């Protein structure tokens, strides 16, 4: 085996190792440090905007984002292993005895509950959660930035 063949084999093994490291770790949610858009990454550079910010509209997808691992560009958000919600994700929540009400709150992925009304990290636990989908209201953007982390 010559040097060129060894280098090729080394590159292939490196790509395979990286693939194994990230297998099962997606999706990953990151917030842009400048745009404040939240992107759901399905691999290192492929993702979809789930919270609009800057010039990025809700639902915009790209296979050519700056890698989510670049710390100067992205801040990674924690994800709850149980629910799959990212930290600060707006969710509808209710309990079994709530017949005619649903509350829109922010989910705390670290403590598996919602943030309190004041934005404190220790909020309430509910029986039922459902992801809020759609364009965020302006008050939601402001409240998201004030959550205790």
What does this structure look like?
- The chain is an alpha+beta fold and 149 residues long.
- The chain is 19% helix and 25% strand.
- The protein is built from 2 helices and 9 strands, in the order αβββββββββα.
- It has helices at 3-22, 138-146; strands at residues 28-32, 38-41, 47-51, 61-62, 74-77, 90-94, 103-108, 113-114, 128-131.
- The protein has a 5-stranded antiparallel β-sheet, with no helix packed on it. The chain has a 4-stranded antiparallel β-sheet with strand order 8-7-6-9, with no helix packed on it.
- β6 and β7 (103-108) form a beta hairpin.
- The longest helix is centred in the first third of the chain and has 20 residues, at 3-22.
- It is elongated and about 70 Å long.
- The protein starts with a helix and ends with a helix.
- The model has no long low-confidence stretch (mean pLDDT 91).
Over the alpha carbons, how many angstroms does the gyration radius reach?
Answer: 19 Å
Secondary-structure element series: HEEEEEEEEEH
Overall residue-averaged pLDDT value? 91
Which overall shape is indicated by the principal axes computed on the Cα atoms? elongated
Q: Name the helicity range.
A: 10-25%
Number of strands: 9
Structural class by sheet pairing and helices: alpha+beta
Strand ordering within the main sheet = 4-3-2-1-5
Q: Largest sheet, if any?
A: 5 strands, antiparallel
